[in-house]
Specification:
By secondary structure, this protein is mostly beta strands. The chain has helices at residues 26-29, 68-71; strands at 5-6, 52-57, 61-66, 79-80, 90-96, 100-105, 109-114, 128-129, 139-145, 151-156, 160-165, 179-180, 191-197, 202-207, 211-215, 229-230, 237-242.
């Protein structure tokens, strides 16, 4: 949540709906405080071999804590997961072992570093710097690299997207400035989301007015300086998910 707490919810407790049904408030499914809001929702598979929960904040802080500290919590009651600074917010949460990590920012910067550089800390810690952000920039996506043959799919707010070969994003040390993976324009808008995909994957693009599921192979593979192609029209991209 926005207060750095984690709640556990069984999938069976989430009401089934359709693509047009409103759904039920997450706050009513768990015991959140009145002034608390859900920020990130992430699935934990029963057979996962992940060792850590990795947190990334909008200001570029990264924190890694052992998974055991979270899975033993009572359902729905919640517990402290991360200490979030007053001017910051959660951007992403992932389950990891010792993968490399790619951080992507709204201004089209990205950095690829080894998550081993982030030592495990307690649930109430704040984290350390993952990327040196420019003024008014913030993290939009943080993705563990589990297959070096995947490509980075980058989506701009106004529905434009492209894929980048990972060879164009060299491994760096944590806390650097990174390099440009997208150059936003007035027509494309800022970068709103990114994910790692292979040709056989599908990508669900969620917009503010409509959503679309496309084949990853339909997104063009271009260089870091290219803009990309339109993949969704008349809708602002809010998030993307590999399916």
């Amino acid at each position: 949540s926005n207060k750095g707490k984690m709640y556990r919810l069984l999938v069976n407790d989430v009401p089934v709906g359709t693509n047009v049904s409103k759904g039920q408030s997450v706050k009513s499914l768990v015991n959140m405080e009145i002034d608390e809001e859900p920020v990130i929702i992430y699935s934990i598979y029963r057979d996962t071999d992940a060792q850590f929960v990795l947190f990334v904040t909008k200001n570029g802080l990264v924190k890694k804590t052992t998974l055991d500290e979270y899975v033993k919590t009572k359902k729905k009651t919640g517990l402290a997961a991360i200490n979030i600074k007053e001017d910051d917010d959660l951007a992403a949460v992932s389950l990891v072992k010792d993968e490399q990590l790619i951080l992507v920012t709204s201004k089209g910067m990205c950095i690829r570093f080894d998550s081993k550089e982030v030592g495990p800390t307690s649930r109430t810690s704040t984290g350390i710097k993952g990327i040196n952000l420019a003024d008014d920039d913030y993290i939009v996506s943080a993705i563990p690299v589990r297959n070096v043959n995947d490509k980075l799919a980058v989506f701009a707010t106004n529905g434009v997207a492209k894929r980048i070969d990972l060879t164009e994003i060299p491994l760096q040390k944590r806390a650097g400035k990174g390099l440009a993976c997208y150059k936003p324009t007035d027509s494309t808008g800022k970068v709103s989301a990114a994910t790692l995909v292979e040709d056989a994957d599908s990508v669900l693009v969620l917009g503010d007015k409509s959503s679309i599921c496309i084949e990853a192979s339909e997104i063009p593979v271009l260089g870091r300086a290219s803009i990309g192609n339109q993949v969704i029209k008349n809708s602002k991209v809010l998030s993307v998910s590999k399916v």
